[in-house]
Amino acid sequence: FMSAIPVSGLIGGPLSGWMLSHFAHGQGGMDGWQWLFLLQGLPTVFLGVAVFFYLNDGIKQAGWLTDAEKTAMQDALDQDEQQRSKGVHAVHSFGAVLRDWHVWMLGFIYFSIQMGVYAINFWLPSIIKSLGFENATTVGWLSAIPYLFAGVFMVLVGRSADRRRERRWHLSAPLLMALVGLLMAANFSDNAVIVLVGLSLATMGALTGLPMFWPLPAAFLGSAAAAGGLALINSMGQVA
């Protein structure tokens, strides 16, 4: 489901560029960026209200699943919990979470991933504009390119990781690629082609790191420690 991130960038970039261009003349007494916030924010608010009423609390409450599907999913979750509890580094309480260096290390890794993700998500249009592309629509279309490659790359790496049942290299390699991409974009800022290639590599690597990362803490945090442990790791990432 994390492929929704690059898909949103792929659609949102050109759409945002069009909105900024279309509403650039102060229609309704508002600037283009104000229309952008309004038109893209309202659907999110309405969707949030709908989710509150329609999102099921658990497998048993999911009316769109058959009884056989509910049983199969619950059995899979139970087996997953048993495997986690038998792990060498299994953690079963929040107190143990705070004392376990693995959790803090994973928190630092997630912080590093989010540094790259936020840099790309927040600054990608501005970086592209600094290359000499002044038209907002053009900037929007160009900003979609890295997300297009990232969406394909994320799916391919995810399938490879599942097929080989391996996570470490499928996480490390994309993050190294993101590092190379960011260095390219930073050190060749006068070359639009190299910058776009670097930004594409960085986006592919950083966004792919997200789905490759989260199975790691989930593999050893027991059900009692999962809520606090995952919250701690996620909080460290949001500091970025």
TrEMBL record:
<feature type="transmembrane region" description="Helical">
    <location>
        <begin position="36"/>
        <end position="55"/>
    </location>
</feature>
<dbReference type="GO" id="GO:0022857">
    <property type="term" value="F:transmembrane transporter activity"/>
</dbReference>
<protein>
    <submittedName>
        <fullName>MFS transporter permease</fullName>
    </submittedName>
</protein>
<feature type="domain" description="Major facilitator superfamily (MFS) profile">
    <location>
        <begin position="1"/>
        <end position="240"/>
    </location>
</feature>
<keyword id="KW-0812">Transmembrane</keyword>
<keyword id="KW-0472">Membrane</keyword>
<feature type="transmembrane region" description="Helical">
    <location>
        <begin position="218"/>
        <end position="237"/>
    </location>
</feature>
<dbReference type="GO" id="GO:0005886">
    <property type="term" value="C:plasma membrane"/>
</dbReference>
<feature type="transmembrane region" description="Helical">
    <location>
        <begin position="136"/>
        <end position="157"/>
    </location>
</feature>
<dbReference type="Pfam" id="PF07690">
    <property type="entry name" value="MFS_1"/>
</dbReference>
<dbReference type="InterPro" id="IPR020846">
    <property type="entry name" value="MFS_dom"/>
</dbReference>
<dbReference type="InterPro" id="IPR011701">
    <property type="entry name" value="MFS"/>
</dbReference>
<feature type="transmembrane region" description="Helical">
    <location>
        <begin position="103"/>
        <end position="124"/>
    </location>
</feature>
<dbReference type="InterPro" id="IPR036259">
    <property type="entry name" value="MFS_trans_sf"/>
</dbReference>
<keyword id="KW-1133">Transmembrane helix</keyword>
<keyword id="KW-0813">Transport</keyword>
